[in-house]
Automatic annotation (TrEMBL):
SUPFAM superfamilies: Winged helix' DNA-binding domain. Keywords: DNA-binding, Transcription, Transcription regulation. Pfam families: HTH_5. The lineage of its organism: Bacteria, Bacillati, Bacillota, Bacilli, Bacillales. It comes from Laceyella putida. Residues 112-121 have a biased composition (Basic and acidic residues). Residues 1-108 form the HTH arsR-type domain. This is ArsR/SmtB family transcription factor.
Amino acid sequence: MSLSTEKFAQIAKALSDPIRIKILDLIQAGYDQLGASPPVACCSGGVCVCDIQEQMNMAQSKVSYHLRELKNAGLLHETKVGKWNFYAINYTTMKLFRDELQHRYHREAETVGTKLDHSESNRAGSAQDYGDL
């Protein structure tokens, strides 16, 4: 399965913000590494929005905005338990994005690398040719 251009761009945009990357890192780390305990027993691999707020030292509204962007891009699963919302990484979407990125640009990167190597050697030769002017 491949991603549409629109979905691919939405995911790339969501991943382009350093705050969102930090949030994903916190969720990936989980409670084992956060030095906190979940407010209720829940959600294997999920982290409560309240703990993300605390770790990021950010207002709830700002954290919620970034979580919403990540969720809308399909990068997070959300589970509600009572008054708490827990977020976990959607590894299926992450893999689809990675595969699509590789499919779209991997061959081109190899070709561009070859072209760059070739043009750099031409430039070096050209600089020597014109060095006496």
